[in-house]
Structures
1.
Amino acid sequence: MRDLLPTEMATWTRLSRAAADLCARRGYAPLVTPIVEHTDLFTHGVGAGTDIVEKEMYTFKDRSDRSLTLRPEATASAVRAYFEGGLNQRPQPARLWYEGPMFRYDRPQKGRYRSFRQFGVEAIGDDAPGLDVEVIELSGAWLRECGIEEVTLEVNSIGDFKCRPGYRRALQDYYRPHLAELCDDDRRRFETNPLRLLDCKNPKCMPFQAGAPRTIDHLCEECAAHHRAVLGLLDALGIAHHQNHHLVRGLDYYTRTAFEYWDPGHGGQQNALGGGGRYDGLAEALGFPSTPGVGFAMGEDRVVLSLQDAGRTEPESGPQVSVVPAAEASEAPAMRLAARLREADVRVVVQHGRRSLKAQMRQAQKLGVSAVLILGEEEMASGHVAVRDMLLAEQSVVPEEGVRAAVAQILGGRLVPVGGAG
Ligand code: AMP
């Protein structure tokens, strides 16, 4: 599993802020659920026959011998919380969003990690096609707000429990003569979850995908009408999309609308930035009353990767000012001075510890601050502070009450340098 280090966190913060802001403006409320759940939640909710349940879950026994799993995704948890927290008693649909770490045991590679973070929304309690389009619009707005420019929206309908069995049979009929030519995984999927055959990335199997039957040719009238309404609204709102008749979702509980964002710069489908869709069958699969829902999960790690490759990341925002207590008794006054500047929204550190002034100045240089405030013996005695402008390499002694203005002048005239050496 990986660490996210300070150098990239400013970019992550931009993603989180965009999520919170866009969701608030659309009436989506934040939801936090635990990162461990009973294993059953995922085996029932994500579905046996999916890669996640078959080979990607971190499952362990707790001290009471209960089987727990680190969450591989959050939709099942959101639906559980919706019922257990009484959100089903409030006005419907419940509009929820979350952000946080997910865990999947997979071979780590670029863009695929064992711990990764998702931003997602779930709109639960309504089956209107307009809600599908609402979450699609929200996910697209979030990608744009994060700075992702080139992305394609792939849309499909995978039907529901009424019409999907017919499609599954058509798919099996199509693949049956080719079984010997498929990879081992696909031969297994042929029985357990044939829709996943369309998702296989094995070069042996991919040539068969283009000619496979299309989901939309097998939709029942209700699913077809829902799909037409979704596409009509996307067109009316000018949301560019590509109808992808082979897009399926790996999770069993999905119904009707399925969508994904592909990053053409990163191998397209191989590196979906996120996806979502309708899951009208999920609540029932978890043992709750049948309740429709629609949502998405966006992969924040992949969005950050894409921004890094495009050189569009946020610089780390290190401290702007450091305060050096250079006299015997100046540590407390230095900390008070720092506190006053922080009230004015300045990012300030105090350089604690007994080092020579020269060493302290070298340290300030490495921190990349714009101004250093020095409280030496002389300054302490006269109620003054030495203020050094690091870029101009100029130093002046100002009375304590003038420090704020002096700092503002140094910071105001130019951009604050980025933290770190140089
Ligand atoms: P899923 O829940 O499988 O539909 O995944 C939604 C999004 O989460 C994907 O499109 C990826 O962007 C991201 N994602 C899924 N698995 C991983 C992983 N192992 N590492 C990084 N990102 C992931």
2.
Amino acid sequence: MQEISSRLKKENISIGFVPTMGALHEGHLSLVKESKKENDITIVSIFVNPAQFAPSEDYTKYPRDTEKDARLLHSEGVDYIFIPPVAEIYPADFKTYIEVTDITKKQEGEFRPDHFKGVTTIVAILFNIIQPSSAYFGQKDAQQSAVIKRMVDDLKYDIAVRVCPIVRENDGLAMSSRNIYLTEEERKKALILSASLKQAEEIINKEEREASVIIKMINRNFLAEKSIQLNYIRIVEADSFKEAEKLLSGKEYFILIACKIGKTRLIDNILISV
Ligand code: AMP
């Protein structure tokens, strides 16, 4: 992969890169489509990154279907699929981690303490191997995208980070590789995330500006659904991920929700321009 990327770079061929963990769906493919539009060559990596899973999480159970993924990517016209073995990325004597401070500690960081350290480490390694001109991430993982942008700025990577909108199922559920874990009943209950975000957007459109009022309203939905374990509802400034008390006009915010339905942890968010 390194040889191919170096050759492409020498020939001034622009490389668009889409890092994934496989089990691909339309959300991933939307990133591929965007990359294809903006670059000469598109490279997709499939790597279930052990460093970003806590021991209690679903690393071994994470869905893997490389053949199906390859078929989907082939029909999108992807140029290269990079599927490195774990032992090549993390050999036994591996000792180096990349860690973005501060913005990795709140929200997802409170519930998944070493998660972003694993993410930034793998993304840095993949950036070094692939040397892309642009890299594509989903707003689905809004905090992750903000953390990657921070890393790219701080480490002076010459890479444009593009963040693409959330792709949803027809009923509003944000597409996720983990949705296949949901039972039929849980799948219905999972609509509480997207429905609550929509409801929040509506009251903001009706001039509600107090974060606490918006959060309380969403919280009421979750209180009524005893079988769902809410992790958090937060409203943050879109660029800094600082929690907001009042929404100010001219600024952008994310409303973030994370919860567990049965054994499945789901996250969703909405970008609000006030
Ligand atoms: P993953 O395979 O879950 O690590 O995701 C790979 C990339 O796809 C990340 O940048 C995600 O944010 C993005 N992604 C996942 N789900 C969606 C979605 N529903 N819409 C848009 N992007 C997504």
